[in-house]
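Entry:
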Amino acid sequence: MSQGVPMAMGPLSNPNAVGLILVHGHLGTELHTSEPDVYISEDGGYSWNKALDGPHHYAITNYGALIVAVPQKSSTNVIKYSVDAGQCWNEYVFTSEPIAVTGLLPEPNIKSLNVSIWGYDMETRIWNAFSINFKAVLESTCNSDDFETWKPHEKNSKKGCLLGYLETFRRIKRGARCSVDINYDHQVYQTQDQCDCTQDDYECAFGFKREDGQGQCKLDPQFKNKVIDICVKHEEEKEVSTGYRLIPGDKCNGGFRPKTNLLDLHENCDGTRLATENSKHGGLKVFIILLFVVMAAIGIGYVYVKRYSIDLPCFKTRNIMYRYSELSQKDELDNALDKALNLDEESHVYHDESDDDMLS
């Protein structure tokens, strides 16, 4: 459930139940907006069968001997189970009052026959948890006759080989209707054999491609530089590729093995060619060196200024301020200047007479 919207469960597989996969999906060639159904595969995804209608919570337990599912709807009190890899399903009512199921999980691990269900009551919002033991359904213990040998990828074109290996597992048969010992280790019965190489173990090298993705790797007509030149220690080697490259991780041995001709021509590399290759990186080196010198000069200058407390020129605009003492000094200077110029002192004498007295 995501932000209150029911979401179908994602694909489910179990390392102890090899080849068994449960998914939600639709049958068709296009996307659908309707609710998905549950599909099951017993061969690792090569073929699928419809198992249940509508979305469900599901789980695989007891090495694939038991599959359980709960309908993913508003509320339910029924759990479904299958002992034959989803071919037939049975129902069991685990509570009288339906609940909104939010989880389904085998406990204490994926090998157990105990399955826990939890959810809440739609009216009271009270949470509930239930534990169901399926030992009564799978009473007998599985023996060697209840297991089968299974090869993954047996239906592919390489008869089960994948990345150079042919693996073989032992797993429980469909419909064995028995419980597997919790201490059973299927890895003990796993074998690996190396396969012969085929063209499928190789991918096309640079400049080559397979038509329609199959067949031989052929030279791509759009590939212009058809020969790769390698210059090592002033000697030129020309590698002529046959167009194949072994897929990384592939461990095949023998069989198809394309050859690669490596012709050592022992030709001195052209000096002009070497100079051109070196000049590609020369400009970048010069730029890095100049940048380092400039930054070093700035750093040295900053340290020098800080150490000797040198006042740098300030370009900040200052507001003009006046003091009274400065103004008084300015008046004295003005008087001294007037005397030096022999100005008429009378013109600067203050008279208390009014304008009327002066006119009379």
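The first strand starts at residue 12 and ends at 14.
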